[in-house]
Automatic annotation (TrEMBL):
<feature type="transmembrane region" description="Helical">
    <location>
        <begin position="436"/>
        <end position="455"/>
    </location>
</feature>
<keyword id="KW-0472">Membrane</keyword>
<comment type="function">
    <text>May be a proton symporter involved in the uptake of osmolytes such as proline and glycine betaine.</text>
</comment>
<dbReference type="GO" id="GO:0015293">
    <property type="term" value="F:symporter activity"/>
</dbReference>
<comment type="similarity">
    <text>Belongs to the major facilitator superfamily. Metabolite:H+ Symporter (MHS) family (TC 2.A.1.6) family.</text>
</comment>
<feature type="transmembrane region" description="Helical">
    <location>
        <begin position="95"/>
        <end position="113"/>
    </location>
</feature>
<feature type="transmembrane region" description="Helical">
    <location>
        <begin position="119"/>
        <end position="140"/>
    </location>
</feature>
<dbReference type="InterPro" id="IPR036259">
    <property type="entry name" value="MFS_trans_sf"/>
</dbReference>
<feature type="transmembrane region" description="Helical">
    <location>
        <begin position="314"/>
        <end position="332"/>
    </location>
</feature>
<feature type="transmembrane region" description="Helical">
    <location>
        <begin position="61"/>
        <end position="83"/>
    </location>
</feature>
<keyword id="KW-0769">Symport</keyword>
<feature type="transmembrane region" description="Helical">
    <location>
        <begin position="344"/>
        <end position="362"/>
    </location>
</feature>
<protein>
    <recommendedName>
        <fullName>Putative proline/betaine transporter</fullName>
    </recommendedName>
</protein>
<dbReference type="Pfam" id="PF00083">
    <property type="entry name" value="Sugar_tr"/>
</dbReference>
<feature type="transmembrane region" description="Helical">
    <location>
        <begin position="197"/>
        <end position="218"/>
    </location>
</feature>
<dbReference type="InterPro" id="IPR020846">
    <property type="entry name" value="MFS_dom"/>
</dbReference>
<dbReference type="InterPro" id="IPR005829">
    <property type="entry name" value="Sugar_transporter_CS"/>
</dbReference>
């Protein structure tokens, strides 16, 4: 149930969202959104190369699957503009419901898609996958900012960074749910059954989560911040135009503040899954010998080796790493309140730089070293991701806050997340199986973010509720 805000004598009380409702609604929404997104990311490595690009070489099929994976990131800025417009124009509640519904329908339909091997679908199947992937990105472009505002605009004074970690927790929780389901299907079914229909189950099951999320979000009331925008008649006719005209500097700052976070995350998830499960050269040669088709000298020269860890084992390793992601997402909130967002994130970003510089020594070879690398990387991911739901919205006044934070967050996804997996795989391939270039790429991203943070003012003590341009 909604409670009411305290009022002075003669003033009517205003309904507000209870703490429990804010936590659950912001968390459940992003959990569902990231579950849907990760289901696709995992399928991009495990099944889509074979199902939608069966005639391509292994590395080209993987690159094609990741190229479609990247389509969503180019759709996200469009989603930020569309959903941001309505979020700043008509309110946060209806916009959050629409973004969740869009993501849910697109993900459900991916689970029903024909594959390229089916008669008449060789060309249409990949095209339909691109279209649905675009709508996934469109929805996520509007979801995150709305969930971040739901949490921070309802936070008590001095606790915005803490409340801001609630929607951020949806990322590790969604990841864990999606991958546990994939592991369960992979273990329970034969390889033929999994490729035939098992991969569809995680996408179809998303419908259940969407129904729960919609039920919770339909019971929300608008935040006090947006209500004040309406009362002061400061609703922007064209929020995007107002943002780009008067607030383009924080858009640029926010875009690059988020940059290293995106690069780190998609290297730690999609790239490591490819690298960790790719056979070693010795393993590939042994498999070829067993099959009676020994590798030729040209095949050996062109082979890009990985760590040779089984898919099930590596998915469990990822899940363990993501537990650290979740724990340190929660830890980051109080630390960002104590030290300030800027100072805290400068320290974390320096840690990402060191991690990238030492990547080749921390991530393999061997399963134990890879596990250490995953734990360190996901710990840094939680520390950098947690405060983003506070710092990005705090860069903007309330009447363009949805649009501004969404555009910054999703522009960063386009330049940081979209190419991350593709670039990392290309660098890994170019270095003949060595990953030192991947680490250098991560370190360079950290330098960019460090500079953006250094040039940005501290936002911890701003008047968030009454900041209306």
């Amino acid at each position: 149930m909604s409670s009411t805000a305290p009022s002075k004598e003669g003033e009517s009380t205003k309904p507000v969202n209870s703490r429990g409702k804010v936590i659950f609604a912001s968390l459940i929404g992003t959990t569902i959104e990231f579950y849907d997104f990760y289901a696709y990311a995992t399928a991009s490595v495990l099944v889509f190369p074979k199902l939608f690009f069966p005639d391509a070489t292994d590395i080209n099929a993987l690159l094609s699957a990741f190229a479609i994976f990247g389509v969503a990131f180019f759709a996200r800025p469009i989603g930020a503009v569309v959903f941001g417009h309505f979020g700043d124009k008509i309110g946060r509640k209806g916009t959050l419901v629409a973004s969740l519904l869009t993501m849910g329908i697109a993900t459900f339909l991916i689970g029903l898609l024909p594959t390229a091997s089916m008669a008449g679908w060789a060309i249409l199947a990949p095209i339909m996958l691109v279209i649905l992937r675009f709508f996934q990105g469109l929805a996520l472009g509007g979801e995150w900012s709305g969930a971040a505002l739901l949490a921070t605009e309802n936070a008590p004074e001095g606790k915005r960074a803490i409340y801001g970690t609630f929607p951020q927790l949806g990322a590790p929780i969604g990841f864990i749910i999606a991958n546990v389901i994939f592991i369960w299907m992979n273990v329970s079914l034969s390889a033929e059954e999994f490729l035939s229909w098992g991969w569809r189950v995680p996408f179809i099951l998303s419908a259940v989560l969407v129904i729960v999320g919609l039920y919770v979000r339909l019971k929300l009331v608008e935040s006090v911040s947006f209500t004040k925008v309406i009362e002061q008649e400061k609703v922007q006719k064209l929020p995007l135009a107002a943002t780009l005209k008067s607030h383009w500097r924080p858009v640029v700052a926010g875009t690059f503040i988020m940059f290293a976070t995106y690069v780190l995350f998609y290297i730690m998830t999609t790239f490591t899954l490819s690298y960790g499960t790719k056979p070693t050269l010795e393993g590939a040669q042994a498999a070829a010998e067993k099959a009676g088709k020994p590798m030729t000298a040209d095949q050996i020269a062109a082979f890009v080796p990985g760590l040779g860890i089984t898919r099930s084992d590596f998915l469990w390793m990822l899940i363990i790493g993501v537990v650290f992601f979740g724990i340190f997402t929660v830890v980051s909130g109080p630390l960002a309140e104590k030290w300030g967002r800027r100072k805290f994130l400068l320290g974390v970003t320096a840690g990402i730089f060191v991690f990238g510089a030492l990547w080749f020594t921390m991530f393999g070879p061997g399963q134990a070293a890879a596990m250490v690398g995953l734990i360190v990387g996901f710990t840094l991911m939680g520390l950098t991701f947690g405060p983003m739901a506070a710092i990005l919205p705090e860069l903007f006044p309330a009447n363009v806050r949805y649009t501004g934070s969404a555009v910054a967050y999703n522009l960063s996804s386009m330049i940081g997340a979209a190419p991350a997996s593709f670039v990392a795989i290309a660098l890994w391939s170019a270095a003949n199986g060595s990953t030192w270039l991947v680490g250098a790429y991560m370190a360079a991203a950290a330098v960019v973010t460090f500079i953006a943070l250094w040039l940005t003012r501290e936002t911890k003590d701003m008047d968030y509720e009454n900041n209306v341009a």
